[in-house]
Write a structure and sequence with these properties.
single chain; about 280 residues; mainly alpha; 13 helices; globular
Length: about 280
Amino acid sequence: MTQIPKVPIHEPHTVYIKPSKGLAALNLRDLWVYRELIFFMVWRDIKVKYKQTLLGMAWAVIQPVMTMLVFTFLFDRVAKLPTEGIPYPVFAFTALLPWGLFVTALNQGSRSLVAHNNMVTKIYFPRLILPMSSVFAGMVDFAIAFVILVGLMFYYQVTPAWNLVWTLPLFLLLAIVTALGVALWLSAVNVQYRDVNQALPFLTQFWLFATPVAYSASVISEEWQILYSLNPMAGVVNGFRWALLGTGNGPDITLWVSVGISVLIFISGLFYFRSMEKTFADTI
């Protein structure tokens, strides 16, 4: 009589599904998968910004130049603030470059989710792309304005600090990290509380005068320097001037404090944005 082979019986087991933790929770790999969408959104932001404008990309030059002229009259001709031997137009315009990039992140990045609410509520894609594209789109204005700075330095016969220029990309990266970190926080908060739109003009104006754009950081007394460096844009602006013009003390404790604050804002902004991302479609 043929015996029926016995089928092994496996013990039941339990599968636990747990949320990812740490850096894995950020799921940054999606950004690489959707890299073409990032490029498309950056290009779209640039076109929308200057669509149906008479002067087009000339606004990327007009805005910082007019601000520089106002600062020159008020802080150089009237207040006569020290500029460490650098002609004031060059001194101010060097700081207006990273500041313009930061303001773009504040204004465009913070409104990016609400402005694209149809995309957020209807299709899936990493929402992180929206504030990122706003920051990267600001790089175009930065590049155009940088050409004007080169012209100003040539006109005023200001020699760049050639031995320090190689550090400029590092400070540009710091400016991007700072701008993106603030944009992540504000864009996520703006989905739930539209007060961000009302607070932005005040925040931008206050932050401008709290940053050494129109004046030198040397006018701040030494006992307040560490506290002053808690402003991450102070380190960015001072770094740009040091890398291009050779002014200031270079990398010191105040710079590292600003770098630490910038990295903290960026990392915390990433985690906060990701934690709130699942509620965007329902809340917006």
